[in-house]
Amino acid sequence: MTTIQYINTAGQLHELCEQIKKEPWLALDTEFLREKTYYPKFCLLQIATPEWVACIDPIALPKLDELFDAIYNPAIVKVFHSCRQDLEIFYQLTGKLPEPVFDTQVAAPLLGFQDNPGYAMLVSSLLNINLSKAHTRADWSKRPLSPAQIEYAADDVIYLCQVYQLILQKLAELGRSDWLKQDFAELSNPALYEVQPENAWLKIRGKNKLTGKQLSIVQTLAEWRERAAQSEDRPKSWLLRDELLFDLAKLQPETQEELAEVRGISERAVSRYGKELCQLITAAKNRTPIGQDVKDRPAKKTQQQEAILDILTALVRIRAEENSINPNILASRKDLEVLLFNDGEDECPLLHGWRFTMAGKELVGLLKGEFLLGIEADKLAIVKKPD
User: Fold this and answer.
1) From the centroid of its chain, how far is CA 129?
2) How far apart are CA 266 and CA 151, in angstroms?
3) Which helix (H) or strand (E) holds 337?
4) Engineering a disulfide at 226: which of 161, 197, 253, 325 sits with its beta carbon 3.0 to 4.6 angstroms away?
């Protein structure tokens, strides 16, 4: 069994950094808390290779510049599973992102796994090991960590090393080793981790049902809530829940007394933010809401458009079956709608990377009339239209 290095002194950290510099790749994971804060509270960093494993204590070691310098070496591949939250922490702490990265959650569907497979499921399927869930809800900010917690945390990267190696081997056998370069490069795009408060309303469900004054109010309050949550480092829902944003948009209180009558708003919110919220609501009522940029997609698709989507779906199924992957991994119905209605080419995954090679190019050609869909030997076939 590999000895787990617990790193909580500057001397140990320096030795580990020298060790890291010699490696071609690292498996990484983080433990953090976010229940009571806006930003994740970094509690533990786990790193492993096939030869060693270490758990670094960022609470005991607030200065981690040397560590990040070693990890960010572009000659070292950084391996994660579902890396977005881990990379968010890295970006928050350093203002930059590591490259190159490899995400096993992104890669696994190319081997026939479902979309966004969980880590435990991958470990079970590939290694026949069932991971413990004993410390799933542990408070990783408390010290000292128990030996069982440290072992639990280390297992995440110990098995990630094995999963990574198996996935690499299987991708190579299928000739798919280079398919994910663009997907992985995008994971190191700072735009994924930079929160723009003015766009916070775009993530609120049900906004499409609002128009005019109500939409303008929700947009304004969502931006205010995002900035306030960032400033106070508190969860957004602790300030105003989404349902409350809608209630305020409908009731449109103009005084603190009226605001206090709104069901669900706390006395603290009325006392601390009441005057500002009322001013924002009043101003928002007199502004035109920001457009939702739905372009020219019809509210209801015609029978002809539905039929075209069915044909595109048929092509996706053919190519997915040929490559032994789930067709939803290749393209969802929503992806095909984006392609059909030209709702922003940059947002359509079918126009980038391996998806474009496998099906996107043919789909575009089909829409342009360059390809024809027919039946040959009882099977659907896509053929280039003769000149």
Assistant:
1) 26
2) 42
3) helix 333-341
4) 197
pLDDT value for 298: 52
Residue with tokens 């040959």: 376
pLDDT at 296: 44
DSSP letter for 58, please.
T
Long-range contacts of 218-221 (CB under 8 A, 24+ apart): 218/245, 218/246, 218/249, 219/284, 219/289, 219/290, 220/280, 220/281, 220/283, 220/284, 220/287, 221/245, 221/248, 221/249, 221/277, 221/280, 221/281, 221/284
**Strand 77-80 with 371-376, pairing:** unpaired
Q: Which of 27, 37, 36 is nearest to 154 (CA)?
A: 27
Stated pTM of the model: 0.87
**Is it the case that residue 344 has pLDDT exceeding 90?**
no
Task: Report H helices in 263-302.
Answer: 267-285
Burial per residue of 146-174, b for 16 or more beta-carbon CB atoms within 10 angstroms, e otherwise: eeebbbbbbbbbbbbbbbbebbbebbeee
Residue 160 parent element (H or E): helix 147-173
306-334: average pLDDT? 92
